[in-house]
Amino acid sequence: MVKIGKLELGEFPLLLAPMEDVSDPPFRAVCKQNGADLMYTEFISSEGLIRDAAKSIQKLDIFDYEKPIGIQIFGNEIESMREAAAIAEEAGPDILDINYGCPVHKVACKGAGAGILLDIDKMVSMTAEIVKRVNIPVTVKTRLGWDQNTIRIVEVAERLQDIGIQAISIHARTRQQMYKGEADWSYLNLVKDNPRLHIPVFGNGDIDSPAKALEYKNKYNVDGMMIGRASIGYPWIFNEIKHYFATGENLPSPDLDERIKVAKKHLDFSVEWKGEKQGILEMRRHYTSYFRGMPNFKTFRTEMVTAETYQHVSEILNQVSEVYADYEF
């Protein structure tokens, strides 16, 4: 049984990665319904939280049906992160996660996210202060290092454990790689082989099929996996992986009716959470992913991303159902 603090997550939990502009409550809802064991919010700016910025505060929205749920924060100032951690804890999450892995320039080059991998001592000091500030388990998501010459992930994991984090998720790329090239999970083996390490280690990067998930589970000895990009428009991946682990067989790909049903659920959650105008606007980024691979879909996609009412989007989805009734994925 994998535990984060007292939180029991099963024998080999599958986590939904925190993804900016993706991992909002509507998306988390459909992932939860399709097998995600633990989910995280989009990353939230510590400076935004302590300044009561509306966008940051809204990202604290979590719901009982999502539990267990973690709130993720990022920043480069220790005191701001301490204060933000306390604010996040008041929202009622099961876990507080610290983002030490975001590679985008505007975050990393200000010393936040993966930028802190250039200053491991500060990373440890900041984490220690956050652990002392809150009463819920603290976890960390990070990368292997800033670049190939600065990979110290075995040391990082041990030092963070020693000051109190309860689990670590490692994206098996450096910041320099961004999302390019192949994730190198061999470093996760090194982390797990450290006899002093006893906290759960979750692997992240390139898990895009049940077969690959099983291969990496057996090869790299991790305690669970965090799935990000492969779940966008395809929340079924969590249950598909679990089924493959249990039976060695692939579940049939979701048919068109199932894809439309889940896309509608996603849309309903989005409108309910953000209101019709904003909910429809933020849902636009997901339509292409739900119907990826369908031939001659450009006209429908264009209509979906320009539709301005719930009624119109629903009508387009119904048209898709009729036009592609015989299509097989």
What does this structure look like?
With 329 residues, the protein is α/β, with parallel strands linked by helices. The protein folds into two domains: 3-247, TIM Barrel, CATH 3.20.20.70; 256-323, Non-ribosomal Peptide Synthetase Peptidyl Carrier Protein, Chain A (Orthogonal Bundle), CATH 1.10.1200.80. It contains 14 helices and ten strands. It has helices spanning 25-33, 46-50, 54-58, 78-90, 105-108, 120-133, 153-162, 186-192, 210-220, 237-247, 256-274, 276-290, 298-304, 310-323; strands at residues 3-4, 7-8, 14-16, 38-45, 69-74, 95-100, 138-143, 167-171, 201-204, 224-227. The protein has an eight-stranded parallel β-barrel, surrounded by five helices. A two-stranded antiparallel ribbon has the order 1-2. Helix 8 (186-192) links the parallel strand 8 and strand 9. Helix 11 runs antiparallel to helix 14. The chain is globular, with a radius of gyration of 20 Å. The two termini are 36 Å apart. The mean pLDDT is 95.
Keywords:
329 residues, TIM Barrel, single chain, globular, alpha/beta, two-stranded antiparallel ribbon, eight-stranded parallel beta barrel, 2 domains, Non-ribosomal Peptide Synthetase Peptidyl Carrier Protein, Chain A, 14 helices, 44% helix
Summarize the helices and strands and which ones pair or pack.
Blueprint: E1 3-4, E2 7-8, E3 14-16, H1 25-33, E4 38-45, H2 46-50, H3 54-58, E5 69-74, H4 78-90, E6 95-100, H5 105-108, H6 120-133, E7 138-143, H7 153-162, E8 167-171, H8 186-192, E9 201-204, H9 210-220, E10 224-227, H10 237-247, H11 256-274, H12 276-290, H13 298-304, H14 310-323
Parallel strand pairs: 3-4, 3-10, 4-5, 5-6, 6-7, 7-8, 8-9, 9-10
Antiparallel strand pairs: 1-2
Helix pairs in contact: 1-11, 4-6, 7-8, 9-10, 11-12, 11-14
